[in-house]
Predict the structure.
Amino acid sequence: MKGVYAVLAVASLCACGGGYSSTSPNTSPPKVNTAPPAGGISVTNNQFSPVGKTVAIGTSVQWAWNTCTGDTYNGQTCVSHSVTFDDGSLSSPLQDQGTFTKSFSTAGTYTYHCSLHGAAMTGTITVQ
Ligand SMILES: [Cu+2]
């Protein structure tokens, strides 16, 4: 496939065409990976990074999804994950891009997991 697109790119750069019609290889917008902010947590495929995090009371923690692999030429694969707290108090949607933010106003240990990957994908926020 790569070779075909390379030919298309060369053809579109050349103004000598005339009668040449091309079709757009992929019109859907590419999905994006989002770098976590300072102090944030990266949601990667089957792992939260960092797995454990300690924050002060009142801190907002942001998770950022980085689950897309591949490229716009060969196609992207973005895997869905969630941030679901073990006590059932809160969950992000299952999503394959974007961010999720939770504010922690009470001291304690908050464990969470991905609703799709369960025990294979867990994390802990310690609030003190
Ligand atoms: Cu997951």
In short: The chain has one domain: 30-127.
